[in-house]
């Protein structure tokens, strides 16, 4: 059955880079639903993060669901490597190349779940012909590349447009960038169900003080569920 419940996916871009195994275990023990891995190439975005060997090293620590957000161009040559590394879902950017349909077919061929992401400057309607291929649409609510940026409010309207386009298809809408207890409510009302949060989850906590992660996750979830009740 399709899971329409609120899902919180902490981004390990905000974790302690010397301690990923324990950080992943801590966020899961404190209520994370998914673990979000941000892959950056220093070309599509001005930052560099995790190659397939790093993702493979994270895999045994993830007991929930690992979504891998590929901010790389070209993307097609690396899809199989990230699938083999253990991604449960691979998300590619619409802007990563001229053939997003082919990219999504390549992701599906690996057997992992499949998502398409849109930058803040990209309108919703470009994915109308791609929706039958995806399990999730990721709406970027900051320009990709870094954690800790300010939420872009027009993302709410884009989520609503995409929810309308999806109709009765079983597709998640994930929002990524600047999500916290103050920004999540309108996103839920617009139709999103999955929320990436980096700084809002990891701020103030550590593997020695993991209860703070729990408090931070609960604060986002409570704000989201409150909005869901009134929608
Ligand atoms: O994909 C990205 C950034 O490009 C994100 O996943 C960020 O890591 C989210 O961080 P916050 O905005 O929640 O701090
Ligand atoms: Fe991300």
From TrEMBL:
Pathway: Carbohydrate degradation. GO terms for biological process: pentose catabolic process; pentose-phosphate shunt. It catalyses: D-ribulose 5-phosphate = D-xylulose 5-phosphate. Substrate binds at residues 11, 69, 145-148, 176-178, 198-199. A divalent metal cation binds at residues 36, 38, 69, 176. Signal peptide: none annotated. InterPro entries: Aldolase_TIM, Ribul_P_3_epim, Ribul_P_3_epim-like, RibuloseP-bd_barrel. Its cofactor is Fe(2+); Co(2+); a divalent metal cation; Mn(2+). Its EC number is 5.1.3.1. GO terms for molecular function: D-ribulose-phosphate 3-epimerase activity; metal ion binding. The keyword ATP-binding does not apply. GO terms for cellular component: cytoplasm. Pfam families: Ribul_P_3_epim. Binds 1 divalent metal cation per subunit. Keywords: Carbohydrate metabolism, Cobalt, Isomerase, Manganese, Metal-binding, Zinc. Belongs to the ribulose-phosphate 3-epimerase family. HAMAP family: RPE. Catalyzes the reversible epimerization of D-ribulose 5-phosphate to D-xylulose 5-phosphate. This is Ribulose-phosphate 3-epimerase. It comes from Rhodovulum bhavnagarense. The lineage of its organism: Bacteria, Pseudomonadati, Pseudomonadota, Alphaproteobacteria, Rhodobacterales.
